[in-house]
Amino acid sequence: MGSATSRLSGTGLKHCTLWKADRSPACRAVMMALDSMNLSITEVDINMDKGEHRTQEMINLNPLQTLPVFKDRELVICDSHAICTYLAGRYCDSGRLLPQDPGGRSIVDQHLHYNSSIIYPRFKAAAYPIIYESCNFVMPQQIADIDGTYSDLECMLYKRTWFGGSWATLSDIVFASTVSTLNVMVPIDKEKYPRLSSWLYRISDELYFVTANRKGLCEFSRRIDCSSVFDDTEFKCPRSSLARRGQQLKESNLEETR
Ligand SMILES: N[C@@H](CCC(=O)N[C@@H](CS)C(=O)NCC(=O)O)C(=O)O
Q: Which of 8, 9, 65, 195 could bridge 157 with an S-S bond, Cβ 3.0-4.6 Å?
């Protein structure tokens, strides 16, 4: 299991820990939420290929044997949606990511439930046979289901720039992690889904997407393309969220000056 590191600067929550794997969209949603709130916590990398999420220590934390797992002092939360709303409610006063008025909040909740109950099972049905069962392609039924998701999301974006309102909220962050991952397996047809594809383009430019989603998405793509275990000597990335942000910014600045 990866060793824990703590934050370097910024709003550090030393009493909080996230156990995560970058290739997991659920983990990347939490990482983006953290970066968008400028929060830095201890992050521990778990190698799912080695079954590190199934050790007794992890089962004690999360009997469901899934990632992410989050701990704030004695409180343990094992679902990305619940972790994101907890973080936004507890550590972000502004209501920017999670509206404080019941109406606005219900819209975000509705999106998080859609992500959890509809999109996530479709993601698993498409990706797991490739990751775990040496299947080399996304099966036709799974392609149709993912296309159905794109169609739903396209409708939800009618007359909207962002899913939750006039700015990006947790709805957008959570959808960004799953939709960018689905897009690797079933590319979004720009002609058929213009609103969804421009939303994905727009959110891909957000700093938190760059710092917290890109590396894991790249790892996932590599895994889907090659059906091979990701070589974790590549894409070395600090585990503290602020350190991660610093390194990736440095890398993207370097790329720009090339
Ligand atoms: N509803 C959960 C789903 C978590 C989940 O299923 N995570 C996947 C990784 S993306 C996992 O841990 N799978 C177990 C495995 O692959 O063995 C959440 O949003 O946190």
A: 195
